[in-house]
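Let us practice reading a record.
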Amino acid sequence: MSETFEHANCFGRSSGIFLLALCVAFLTATPAWCDPPHMIDPPSSSSMIALIKTTGPLDFCGERVPLDNPEVRERLEKEFLVSLWNRPQVILWMKRSGRYMPYIEEMLKQNNMPMDLKYVAVIESSLTFHMSSSKGAKGSWQFMEETGKKYGLKIDSDVDERRNFLSSTRAAINYLKKLYEKFGSWTLAAAAYNMGEEGLKTEMLLQKTNNFYYLYLPTETQQYIFRAVSAKEILSNPERYGFKLSKEDIYPPLQFERVELVCDQEAPIYLVAEAAMTYYKVIKDLNPEIKGHYLPKGKCDILVPKGAAAGFQARYEDLVKRWQGERKEHVYVVKKGENLSSIAADFNVPLPALLIWNHFGSKKQVKPGDRLLIFPEEKKQEK
């Protein structure tokens, strides 16, 4: 046993040295996919220390951050250093800002609300719409289901508008506006957005203060405003912190048109893509709130690529009629002794595709006489 242990120990030391060398090589190498002119050197420790020694003033939504308080400064510096250290993430913030910020800023302007609120979306999701938290929050603004529904978002088995950037932004603005009316401070409104209004109100009552910076709150909420202020400072002065992206490096604003559809029955999304003269992925990316592969029955607004709205309705209606006619040719009647797996094998189609075509769950059982929709690439060979 001792010999085996010595061999394992030796292997462990060798492996550790190898892994350390590999990590150094990885960190110092220029990846093949990186464009060298856009590489950004991380600041040295001394320069990072100099950068965080700001004398201010700093604010969130016009409300001053009390940097003269050593504990407040420490909390800010911690979040600031964490943000600066994660340089790839900051670069993505900058690049995505070009795609989404114009819409957030316009909605804030229409509602006479501070522009700093746009940084809530940055710290909540890094401006992505597929983000999900362990607590169940989803989307760019990380709405919980109950709150999302309260502020007008449709959330059911077919659609989850928390993932729709435009719808969720409108809901977030309405929610933040309501929180400001309740707390009289944008800083407290943002804190309540993170931890819940009842929770914040309870702590204010028990601690006898309405000053965010002197409230003892859950760790995530205590960090929340400082993360937003750090994001604001970095994105407002990127070159000061070593981020030098050209205009061409920034993702352009979303380009789309809106069409209205009324579906008498569920219809596959690929028909929308064909009518919009684009790909299924493009439609899903523009409409991430739609779950699965089908449009739900009823009225719905769909975003399509810019230029695709002209003639869309006629193309879509023609495709739907053709699809409804073809469905009759793809009905299969289940025979005795068959199950979904054997039918999928006989038709040479994946079982998940068979389940999706028929809106079945994975545990669905079929019996003789049941009718299935099957769309094989080739016709089944009769036995």
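A brief commentary: The mean pLDDT is 85.
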